[in-house]
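batch_manifest entry 22 of 60
target: Outer membrane protein beta-barrel domain-containing protein
source organism: Polaribacter sejongensis
requested by: lab member K.T.
priority: normal
notes from requester: please return tokens only, no post-processing; we will run our own comparison against the previous entry in this batch. if the run fails, retry once and flag.
--- input ---
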Amino acid sequence: MFLLKILFKIGAPFMFLFCFSVNSYTQSSGIKGVITDETNTPLEMVSVALISPKDASFLSYTTTDLKGTFFLKDIPKDTVILQLNLLGFKTFSKKMIYKKQLIDLKTIVLKEDVGLLDEVVITAVVPIQIKKDTVSFNADSFKVNFDDNIDGLLNKLPGIEMEEGKIIAQGTTVTKIFVDGKEFFGGDPSIFLKNISADAIAKIEIIDKNSDEAELTGINDGNKEVVINFTLKKSKKNRGFGKVAAGLGLDNRYFSNLNYNQFNSKSQLSVIGKFNNINVTGSNIQGFLENADGIADDSSDDSEDDFINPQKSLSGFLKTVVTGINYGKELRKKESFNVDYFYNLSENNGVSDTKRVFFSNTNNFNYSSKNKYLNISDNHNLNFNYENKANKTSSLRIKGKFFSDKINSDLIREGLFFDTMDELVTTNTNTSSNSNLKKYGNLNVDFYRKLPKKGRSYSTSFKAVINNYTKNNNQNTFIETNLNKTNPSTTNFEILRDEDLSSADILVKVKYTEPLGGNHYFNTEASSEILTGTENTNQNRKTIKTTTIEDAIEYYYKYSENSFKTKFSHSYNKSDLNISTGLELQTLHRSFGEVDEIQFIREKFYLNPSLFFQYKPKRGQKFRFTYRKYIKAPRANQANPFYNDINPYAINTGNPDLKNEKTNSISATANVYDFNSSFNFNGKIQYSNSTDAIIRNVTIDDEYIRTISYQNSGEKIRFNALLNITKKINSLGVRLSLKNKFSNNAANSIVNYELNNVVSKDYLTSLILQNNSKRKVDLKAGATYVVNNTSFSIENNLDRKFTTQKYFGMVDFDFSKRLNVNTQFDYLVYTDNKFLIQQEIPIWNAAISYALTPKNNIIKLVLIDLLDKNIDVYRRSTLNYFEETNLQSLGRYVVLSYTFKINSGKKKINKSLKT
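--- output ---
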């Protein structure tokens, strides 16, 4: 009942908004008509553009449907020109006076053969087209600056967001990037986005791509992935192009960039390079973000229990050296090979201040620390992809990824512990020097075979993942306790801990599909996954108090997890409807323990049902519902019975008696892209309920030492809802984007042997307004409001609420064809009822660009953080503490740069209007 109430509350607004968009067709205004050829056959996908005769500005756009009909709405009251375009037919143009009343043009006949009309017509650059499963954007329709890269262009496109280096299109993460239809920089697509110039792109296509199996068999199984394809301008093909840039600034700031590309119909080559100290990365920055404040010891396992954990920005001072190369080759038609290599050498140092409130049923206390850190990363990343679809009855894909990452981290933390009377009782100074080397390899092989009978096929998949993680930790912790008493004491820990962790995960899967007739299919699938791993640990500790005590820990831990699955399913597949129901039989066998000692052995059998439903009633609309049950075994460290006490104040141990976690998950999505009414809608609901939930068990003693273990207890409930709306209001000349997120997470924790129920509710609302016509001026303004409510059953006075408010405005103005000025102002407000000080951070950035020659030589002055606030704020809530960290950021800097573009192409006069 609880779930139904939530679904109703969230779903009702979704249905109202959708019905509103549909009902808008019945209104008595707009322009409509039917387009046919000379034989009276309706013409689909005719581009219907409405432009202003005054300045050739773009007003509205749509395409015809299967019946050749179109309907344009939301048109300003004015004289307008209707223009119809379809390849193979003459362009049709008609001038009209629109008075906010319905104009029915009845039937319009297009004549074959492209030819010029006797009168001069203005050809509109149509910014957006939609064809079946593809949304296509004309890059020239969106204003970008001289030296913008592709990520800057994507930020201009409706329905596309950039989050943590990933592309979110139509509410779904883009899985692959193609250039002229060929996969590019498969290992890390953000490299491509951050380095290739936006002005090299002619068209951007967001494609709902069929699975490899569906492409081979021709049976639409509904399993699609969202990919993005960039089509290069003709002037960039068969010629080298790119850019070289360098800049110097105040306070010894510098940067340099290099990008060179060579593309033709058979091969593609791209080379990039970066060298700077202005906190600009090529990619692969996630490791730094995780440790940007130097906290890498007692927080490393909190991620699953974070109820609010916003993405960190990169703080401190970063030096980066980046090089990368991509090479792709079409060996023959539908057979290609692609390989890329990426190297990143980075050095990040800075300082931060942390305030943390710990809580338990008996002993709440406050903690604060000052942190100074230095992280150096040496990262190598190699990816390759081979694809062969030349055979009409089979296809093969081999994909591999290999990387190594060596990180050296130095940290000095000065921590202070306060009792409930806010008296200082304990201090600790932790000095650590850690060297970590991680090696990773991943190989995927997928083979699909179409058999003679239509719809009959089989496929085999092989996946191998190998990890090796070597940690060399050197920790020195000096502790002073009982500072509020007459007999304070001191303790010093000197710890050396070496860990070698290795794992291998092998998955083999076979699937067979048998047609039953009438779009019905029977599928059977069998898979075997074997996960094995070892942990070899050697620790030596010297404890210096009144006397010196030395002890050592040494163990060799081994674990294995074997999962055998057999799945039977029935599917009904049509172009507009996919329904699949299945039942999976799973045997999960686990064994673990110290080598040459008694092993822990666990084996269970499970039945896991699943349901998939997808309906696409018309072009631009898709509705999906999924349900599945899955089993999650404890992670290796959660079941490891040995202690990890390298941090004397955060001791970790596992629980070998943990049971598998069982989760029922449902999700529902609705995507509506209605270009007739300029209305885009994306909604998503996710709900999961886990039983035998694996939760944390925390004990805190009188000396503030936490011992963290794991236990199965009760349920873990997660509910998430997303609503995105984009609406173009032509009468006002603006585009409105509204984004809403809601999440409700509930889980148990055990603190000092008492069960604690924690409920966290998060709300996010974001509104962005921007102008439609961007010939000279690009305007954008918006606000984001985020609130987190966390409640605890241990003590009600620990309930927490904090908010983040962000207001921003951006102006990008072309004073001339060569001079551009850009400025953006952000104002952030952080409010938290557990931290009395309200943080208010204004951030002002600006840039001035001037092209010395048309599109080639560019001088740019960049001014960052003009108000020199030099601070970032990071907050998080977990099951037994919440904290706020203030991080030193780069602060104000000014850089003057010069960019030279290679093969910028001949300048062309374009009468079309950018929108």
